[in-house]
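Posting here for the record, re: NAP.
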Amino acid sequence: MAQREDFDDGQRLDGMPRLGLGTWENTDAGTCADSVRQALEMGYRHIDTAQIYDNEEHVGEGIAAADVDREDIFLATKIWTSNLSYDDVIHTAKESLDKLGVDYVDLLYVHWPANEYDAEDTLPAFDQLYDDGLIENVGVSNFEPRHLDEAQDVLDAPVFANQVEMHPLLPQDELVEYGQENDVNLVAYSPLARGEVFDVPEMQEIAEKHDASAAQVSLAWLRQRDGVAAIPKASSETHIRDNWESLALELDDEDVAKIESIDRRERQVDPDFGPWN
Ligand code: NAP
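Prediction output follows.
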């Protein structure tokens, strides 16, 4: 198996590893802690959770159990939409740190620009946490260019990343371009389209050509885009490893063109409060 040392060059964006482990719906205490530990011991250094996933404690247990130093891990969590008033951001961010068993997180996101979100009230709390050293970077999630423009106006800290759904069935070209022009990294969530990419014939053809899995093709394609990281969720060691080994897969121009020719468009995460609705 490829080792982490093989992957260091070009595999980080401003210090953020380009491949991380997602944990949404990984709520069983033992499974969640085990998957985080296994991923870290395999070489992953980026873990993604959120208040609403109700697993920050289990993620913290996995981190504590892994034979990896805290400082070597890029840990991200997200403030849920009901906690986005100034006081609730400060208070619940501290609760998240306690649950995770850490003194700081590397990235704290606004989960959605919805419900209690109000740029002028919410974002100064993120600046405060940043100034106090409780968060290393400020992130946003599910933001469109208009929200990003506003956030950049209000925040003193830079907007480090925008986490959005992204995969071959939802390439998000506009947001990728915005990120490149404004120095905002993109973190692709649901990078396997929650399994939907596996049945796409173009993905299967490319996978066969490289003796790889369709999951690996999706992750390699995302990695080869400028300014994009990805956080596939996997709870079994087989999937965690399969995704990790995508770091050894290089797609050629023909593969990339084939993926870009897929015209099926599908959004997997589409709540009524999504800003595009
Ligand atoms: P995903 O990563 O696209 O897909 C996860 C599904 O694919 C799981 O059923 C998993 O199964 C399976 N899988 C993983 N690796 C596989 C492999 N190599 N071969 C076959 N199947 C594989 O979907 P997601 O969980 O929606 O997105 C990933 C992460 O993004 C989330 O966990 C979360 O951290 C984040 N996210 C953020 C937001 C947001 O609003 N910011 C929204 C959605 C997701 P097993 O579990 O059985 O391994």
